[in-house]
Design brief:
single chain; mainly alpha; about 80% helix
Amino acid sequence: MSTSNAFTVPNLLTYGRILAVPIIAALLLVPDPTARWIAAVLFIVAALTDYLDGYLARTLNQVSALGRMLDPIADKLVVAALLIALSADGTIDGLNVLAAVFIMMREIFVSGLREFLGGTVVIHVSKLAKWKTSAQLAAIAILLLAPVLGSASQAAEWLGLAVLWIAAGLTIYTGVDYIRGGLPYLSEAE
């Protein structure tokens, strides 16, 4: 990989998304509505770069192996870190933590499956998997904003948790798809 491939606009957006993760999580530890608003805005910008980096990579013909590797890692880091942070601050609590657990289990499992299969087998991202990611990001954005929305806080929290469960359902369903796609290669490896 050349140095120029490492610093394409799409890859720079992905790096930015990764670097934003600890900043957003740290802001959630600050018991101040302003910090929560900043965290939400940073998260929304990071979520938008998820779509923008792929679009730019295709449009500018800057698709790279590094980008194909880093993009799903960045997605998983953003989702996992924010689900943990939102659980830690009590925004996601009780049985709703199970939705976060299901999402994280699937993401880790699929990452392991991809690693096991290496570059020999490519399991393409389905349209439903893209919807899954959108639902995860939407749920997190709503849950980030819910506590600072005044009289709309309770309704926003319910909506965010409902979308989180929808995301968990899509996450499980698409995880089963990945397993089905990789299963023939797993049995060949024995």
